[in-house]
Amino acid sequence: MASLAHKEMSTRLMTLLAPQGRPATEIVPFTILKDLQESMENLMEADWADMEMGLYPSSLLFTTSWRKWIQCYPLLCLDMPTTWNRRIRRNVTDLPNCINKSNYPNYYLQNFHNQTDGYLSDHSANLYDLQVEILFNGMADAMRRRILPPLLFGLKHFKLQSPWQMKILDVGTGTGKALQQINAALPHAQLIGLDLSAAYLQQVKNSFEQDRKTIPQLVQANAERIPFANNSIEGVSCVFLLHELPTEVRQNVLNECFRVLKPSGILVLADSIQLAHSPQFRVIIENFRRIFHEPYYYDYISDDITAHIRAAGFERISEESHFLTRVWYATK
């Protein structure tokens, strides 16, 4: 309810104070909202069932940091006029002056979601998780957890290994939310988080320190050139990254995931639903790309991710949808 209240409040304020910045969206019919509600309830039921089966601890379902949200929310509200102004001016490269642009690929140097500083500042990293929870009506973590069942099942191939020898790489780890989920389900595994943003990797470090957990190995690198040896990783996860990549880069990243995985290693992807699998939510998908600056999303929603996975060399590919997330998993 809090996220819905924020969306309503921010929309009304934008209409009043910066009407030029309000995107042209379609009205979502009641029947679609009903389908969306049913889909969200199914996600919650699946999440609860997996917890009861022992795939991950019950504490994982109640990890919302309300204190942090209360601290961040005023900052988020203060940031809204800047975001509106950026949208009005169509300025999508409003990035910190201090960054060395040569360290990043061109496709990355943008204000994704119209957010201040793109992914290149502590300010952005501090607000990101709250922004995502508001966007998905509090369901972001539940959607991320959909990677855990196939990941745990796939890693059974390596059950004769010591749990401490198991290495799992989270590609495009961002603030490390997926790493935290994996850590709860596999507390002894060696976790690695890879991301282009030093600020977001610092956020990962901060979160694990606050939880008094062992800090994962954190690597600042481009996922098109993962700095690990061939056949060296048992599991690779990648959450909410592919839709922010150009088509050819998606393929390059999947090729790299295949290269670093050991034979029979498991790849698990989670990202936005697509038109082919969720045509009933077309209006919601279209509205998302109109509201947020997502330069590669229009291509993504029609892209054949399964074909990319197969082209990288993976086998036994499966896919399924949960609420607003599509999950793919495959083995090498």
UniProtKB/TrEMBL annotation:
<dbReference type="InterPro" id="IPR041698">
    <property type="entry name" value="Methyltransf_25"/>
</dbReference>
<dbReference type="Pfam" id="PF13649">
    <property type="entry name" value="Methyltransf_25"/>
</dbReference>
<feature type="domain" description="Methyltransferase">
    <location>
        <begin position="168"/>
        <end position="265"/>
    </location>
</feature>
<protein>
    <submittedName>
        <fullName>Generic methyl-transferase</fullName>
    </submittedName>
</protein>
<keyword id="KW-0934">Plastid</keyword>
<dbReference type="GO" id="GO:0008168">
    <property type="term" value="F:methyltransferase activity"/>
</dbReference>
<dbReference type="InterPro" id="IPR029063">
    <property type="entry name" value="SAM-dependent_MTases_sf"/>
</dbReference>
